[in-house]
Amino acid sequence: MVANSAALPSVQSDSPWFKDSAQLVASKANLENKTKAKNVILFVGDGMGISTLTAARIYQGQQINGNQGGEENFLSFELFNHTALVKTYNTNQQTPDSAGTMTAIATGVKSKAGVLSVSDTALRGNCLSSKGNELVTLVDLANAKGLSTGVVSTARITHATPAATYANSPERNWEADSNLTAEAVANECKDIAYQMVMRDQDNALSVALGGGRRAFLPNTVTDGENKTGRRKDGMDLTQAWVENYENAAYVWNKEAFDAIDVASTDHLLGLFNSSHMEYEADRADDVGGEPSLTEMTAKSIELLKKNDNGYLLIVESGRIDHAHHAGNAKRALMDAVELSNAVKAAYETTDPDETLILVTADHSHVFTIAGYPKRGNPILGLVHGVDGNLSTAIDGKPYTTLGYTNGPGAVVGTRDDLSSVDTQDRDFMQQALVPMGSETHAGEDISLHATGPGANLAQGVIEQNVIFHIINQAQSLGGTKY
Ligand SMILES: [Zn+2]
């Protein structure tokens, strides 16, 4: 039978599923495609694969609705009009790492795992081989065009993803000078923290916010809780930042961060932890006090928008990845939800006609959503079927919806009985298959979500380095002649 619209039964045409979707498609069909962006904000959820998005959206929905429903929820950026799938492999790895993937996003070319914005010709960990192979990044191009630039991360600001935007290094682990090898010192490679702070005034970052104080402080300095700086050259790079740049400020806790006068500050450095910032789940426990990703994003926009030429802001939610490596889904999901909040804040405080907002990940994780839980089943809970009964495996024991293919939660020998375990506790580690000390990245595609001028360039299945070209094109950064 061939149906026409008049023949649709009301159980179909009056259904909210039907009406809402029809309205949505009609509104999108009328969209105007503008392609030139004054400002670009790029959000990267480290390790935020598609299964993480699905689980985070349900988790957020259940927080709002009191642990029921959730499937119908959307993360803020999932409502953006343009989406692409992104291939993440490195030139030498089928399943990538964050250094190689962020190099692709920041420079427009893929490179090896472990290297930061140097070409594939360089050897990892070899300074000499990187000479002459340094790549120009989006930050370099934006600064050369007179835009303001900012980098924000909840990881150490010298960690792979943020570092690839402002540093060139054949080794992601060269975060402080004490990490450099003898060969690197002999051939005059500089550590990542040094490269961030010692940029020329006309190529300086206007905003750098994250964790990782230790790479900026001398090893003679004690930095709370008996953590010492990691620099053996005696330099205090937080001091150098303030001296190097005009109207510069350095803050290390939330109180000082909140007190920053954006009108009189042109270069803001904030380092809120000796190493990575806290997970969102634990942020309230931090002694010194840390701003949230949303607060860091909002303050960055406020400062960067002072430049009439526009700005490029790169924001990483760095610890979704770390929680997954620990086999700990709750912290990963809470950080993904906080990224969604930060994107929402950016969207609401910028003009959609002049700001392109992109949201992506660098790579996925071996994280799965399994079984046949009934709709509204707690996403962190044990699987209960449509009949409401606890589902069991062949071993007669219950299992969680969320799990990992490998990692520290792996079952060796007999599987634990989870019947009386609180699987929604923030410290619960999901069960996994292959025992590994650290759960691994996954090789399947991740997603790119876009709104604003140039957003229509995000479509289809693309190589990760295309993201550079979307920004370059939309913001006319001059990185190519096209
Ligand atoms: Zn990772």
Automatic annotation (TrEMBL):
PANTHER family: ALKALINE PHOSPHATASE (PTHR11596). This is Alkaline phosphatase. SUPFAM superfamilies: Alkaline phosphatase-like. Belongs to the alkaline phosphatase family. CDD domains: ALP (cd16012). Keywords: Phosphoprotein. It holds the Pfam family Alk_phosphatase. InterPro entries: Alkaline_phosphatase (IPR001952), Alkaline_phosphatase_core_sf (IPR017850). The keyword Phosphoprotein applies.
